[in-house]
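User: Quick one: structure for sequence A, then sequence B.

Assistant: Sequence A:
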Amino acid sequence: MTAYQRGLHEIGDGLFAWLQPDGGWGWSNAGLIAHGTPGDGAAALVDTLFDTALTAEMLAGMERATGFGAATIGQVVNTHANGDHTHGNHLLENAEIIASQASAREMEAFSPALLAQMKAAGAAGQMGVAGRYFAEIFAPFDFAGVVECPPTRTFCGHTTLDVAGRAVDLIEVGPAHTAGDVLVHVPLAKAVFTGDILFIEGTPIMWAGPVSNWVAACERIIGMDVDVIVPGHGPLTDKAGVREVADYLAYITIEARTRFDAGLSAEGAARDIGLGRYASWKDAERIAVNVDTLYREFSGDTAPPDVTRLFGLMGQLYYDRR
């Protein structure tokens, strides 16, 4: 297994992973699928990073290693709408940017400008605990330098890209983590880039649900003929790592349902659920979002989540435990 070190890692057959320890808030992974050289081949990028500087550094590293960089990568796949997987899109001026239709709609609602405003407000002591927490976890990132760049091509369900004769399957498995999560499967290389369907050594966060879709996505990965699995956050993993994520989701579902049926509030349940073997995973306070999403699912509430309130709840748990 490739060491969990920052930077570009060749994972075989013209595929590369760009890893960003420690995999916590904003420190996402990306990938490159390259075939041939810029003169006789093609390359597709799987996700960009949270801000302009991080993405520029990644693209420069990829160009040094493969010849493919910002000017020669022809396609970018955004696995979902979150900014840590999309905010570098604007640096790929010559690329087709591809995402699910649901992700494209979600990107419109959470612009880089909005995140910059929330971070600034939090740093200025506004928005209470939510603002303080938001500003702290996203302190390393510069949203002000990001230019919004939405997808130029969308799809629903499944589509296949041709990367210089190499088939790359895009498989929509959302809504789960977000509204339109996509797996990027390269069958001949026996590899899959999962986006945030997988957080390895970190706590998954379920903004959308239903939880059954997320568990089904994990089962789909486990059923694939793959040797290399690149998660959205954390080190490269194997099918045992995928099973751990599915087991966490199943565990919190059972625990939340028990407390929902007993009449406990979502916040009360988030504080009451013991994390057991998952307590060592980073960002454990995300349990607040997961329970809130599960409670809305149990009650049939289809309203979108109140993101500011949920950041406040996570902040309370984070500061209480710290």
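Sequence B:
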Amino acid sequence: MKTVSDELLDELMGIMREAAAGEILPRFRSVTSDTIRAKTAADDIVTDADISSERMISERLKARLPGITIIGEEAVSEDAAILANLADAELAAIIDPVDGTWHFAHGTPMFGSILAIVAGGETIAGIIHYPVLGDFLVARPGQGAWHVAADGARTRLSVAMPTPVNEMHGFIPLHMFAPETRAELAPRVLKFLRVTTWRCSAWEYRMLATGAMSFCLNDSLKPWDHAAGVLIHSEAGGYAATMTGEVYRPRMTQGHLLTAPSFASWTDVRKALSQ
């Protein structure tokens, strides 16, 4: 399997910093109605920052890694056929240029940029950048998950310690599930100490990988939301699989993804949400 060197990882982080400085932050808190468009629903939106930063990151990656397949959230939104390119790609980059666009568009800083490098169907680098803070979460297989501060200082990440279900804090975006599934899940979330949603995978994976939250159940498998985050979470010691028990792969598009601190915790959470 191909690997991402320290040098390349630093270059990829540099590309994300450049996009944040040049395309994202100058537009933050200056979003107007003519720079926001709805996509699949009134609250599923895209801004000029999403489009311009994805274009910039894509161009930089193509120049640095000739022949790489680019799977960008906004490009797929315009042409869904692009997503199929991931299945056969020898090397691919999966980009969510502004994850948490709803927050970005409404002037709150809970957004991030997500990049996953995938080789042969496996994520070989996961990078999440937080433009307002200037820091990152990064991971490569077998090398642990790390917080990289704005000044370059690195701290190894660890998921939460396993606890009983009634002491767990987690994320479940109930509003995004189909009505019949939502009705089944709603009373079951009362089994946990606290359940919420932050409408931003970049920040939810941050809370999971740093041990602030225990679990997350997702309603869909969009690769730009999960390919990087699952690797970071796994390298921080966590476990992720669909509710039917399939271990997550970036090519997967069907199922509900559940992440937890360990396989035993995953089993406990799955049981609580299934009964």
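Residues 6-24 form the longest helix (19 residues). The chain has two domains: 6-156, 165-274.

User: Thanks, that's what I needed.
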